[in-house]
Amino acid sequence: MYETIKYEVKEGIGYITINRPKAMNALNGEVLDEIYAACAEVQNDDAVKAVIVTGEGKAFVAGADIAQMNQLDSIGGRTLIAKGHKVMNYIESIEKPFIAAVNGFALGGGCELAMACDIRIASEKAKFGQPEVNLGIIPGFGGTQRLPRLVGKGMAKYLIMTAEMIGAEEANRIGLVEKVVAPDELIPTCEKLAQTIMSKAPIAIGVAKTTINNGYDLDMRAASTLEVEAFTSTFGSKDKTEGMTAFLEKREAKFENK
Ligand code: DAK
Question: Which pick of 14, 25, 139, 173 has the fewest CB atoms within 10 Å?
């Protein structure tokens, strides 16, 4: 059903694989539409508890499609950029964990896609960068905003202004990725991580994601208020009763997502 991505569900995990290896999985309008559609499947399918986003071949995603961008006038560019933002914001808004399994080049829009995910695990072969200034533009899918939030303002300016490509270890050192593993271990590590998260109370996981994302840009007072309300919503769940009862009964909790 999809032309430019693969989407499958196995044992509670949705796998979104960008599948244009000949073009280094560059993001054109069609890829963005299809990622959005796959995200809608994730959101609407109760069987999907976590998502792994990765790329086919040697790239994760080597950015927005330069060949397509080169053809666009400013209105076309605006449509593409709006689509990109819609996808990144959608990933952030879905109350299920998205894990970026960064297998290779994550450049420009590819780095931005990884940053929109909740957690990034990188293969030792992964390379990261925001090379837009080489093309006469700036990051357009949220990079000027998400990169400083992850690595700090100075390092974000360094990366964006130099267009330097960095390896996985450096990305890990600056806080752009959470873990670096051997290429063969990338998907198994992400699956294990997804399973760990999936074994926790799903409502708490979803509310934690939303509370962190929505609170990040608020002042501390407003953010604290947000946490109080969010906490209260988990406190009223059946999963809270089950989690606490299981602890007191010295058994594993069986969460129902209620
Ligand atoms: N777009 C289109 N095609 C790409 C591509 C890309 N981003 N990246 C690679 N390809 C294509 C190459 O053209 C080549 O195609 P053929 O010649 O085989 O037909 C094929 O993929 C293999 O690439 P290479 O031959 O270059 O492979 P190498 O291993 O030598 O190098 C590389 C891999 C990833 C280092 C290199 O391909 C590269 O530097 N790629 C470009 C990276 C880049 O600059 N990405 C774009 C970042 S800018 C906006 C919205 C959003 C954005 C901008 C504006 N609005 C509309 C306003 C976002 C912009 C970006 O993401």
Answer: 173
